[in-house]
Amino acid sequence: MSSDFESYEQDFAVLTAEITGRIGKVPKLVGDDKKQMVANVEKQIEEARELLEQMELEVREIPPQSRGMYSSRMRSYKQEMGKLEADFKRSRIAYSDEVRNELLGDDGNSSENQRAHLLDNTERLERSSRRLEAGYQIAVETEQIGQEMLENLSHDREKIQRARERV
């Protein structure tokens, strides 16, 4: 059983080395080459996960007295896999940023455009804030007028009731 585990370990080591190398190449590639590399890395990461599952199954079948050593190895392999996935995610984020820039036509000299856009948005926000404040003032005044009208109606009702009582 341990020979199966060791062969899985060797396969995992080779696979993780390939994945690491390819992850490093992803940001440097462009276009279809980059898409293909990302797809290949995704497949290899899935293969590495499957190898880890096979290794876990092998560890479960190892006698309890020697299982501890293999369990600690498994923990380190899982940590290594987590790091690989995080590195791949970071390289994909860089990849998606580059694609976004290509699609939007950002050429790196757009800071002036961004600043102008930011100033326009700030101005628009300030105008909206002023409108909201004016609307709030109108609502407060309307509420006060409504309250005064209700008080007047209440006084008028009392007068009418007193007049009825006299009659």
Write up what this structure looks like.
The chain is mainly alpha-helical. It is built from four helices and no strands. It has two domains: 3-105, Methane Monooxygenase Hydroxylase, Chain G, domain 1; 111-166. Helix content is 91%, strand content 0%. The mean pLDDT is 83.
Largest sheet: none
In helices, the fraction of residues equals over 70%
CATH architecture of the largest domain: Up-down Bundle
Number of domains: 2
State the CATH topology of the largest domain: Methane Monooxygenase Hydroxylase, Chain G, domain 1
Mean pLDDT: 83
Shape descriptor: elongated
In the CATH hierarchy, what is the superfamily of the largest domain? Answer: t-snare proteins
Determine and state the CATH class of the largest domain: Mainly Alpha
Which range does the strand content fall in?
under 5%
Number of helices: 4
CA-atom Rg in angstroms: 35 Å
Q: Note poorly predicted spans.
A: none
Based on helices, strands and strand pairing, what is the structural class?
A: mainly alpha
Distance between the termini: 110 Å
- Total beta strand runs: 0
Listing every helix as H and every strand as E from the N terminus to the C terminus, the arrangement reads HHHH
Pfam family, one: V-SNARE
GO cellular component, one term: Golgi membrane
Organism: Podilymbus podiceps (Pied-billed grebe)
Protein name: Vesicle transport through interaction with t-SNAREs homolog 1A
